[in-house]
User: What shape does this take?
Amino acid sequence: MIFLDTNFIISLFLKKHDNHDRATEIWRNIQNEDKIISRLTIAEVLNVLNIRVKANIELTEKVCKFMFDELIIINDIDYYIKAMKHLKLYYPERIAFFDCIYMVLMEELGIKEIATFDEDFDLNKNIKRIH
Assistant: This one.
């Protein structure tokens, strides 16, 4: 099992993204793995595509369909309170609360790897970052 972070999914679909080629290579290498995201990942991806990247609606719809059709989606609501402990643990570094939720979810489900270009995940020694 491998968790897919928001920036990985966005890099995979945005051909002009700096990490697109690497994301494509990683995607090919993990084809036989169970690929996990959370409901929060869906919201984060779609929000970034729509607001920050200003992707066209067709691409946004394509990415949305991909997440629902190709990935295993975990309900993450049960991990929010536990994620506060991670937020406090990594407080001086000010990592995103989204990332804390993903870390807790991964730990609870025994997921050891994450496809991400976000170096904040290196703070958690129980997670191997695929980048």
Summary: The radius of gyration is 14 Å.
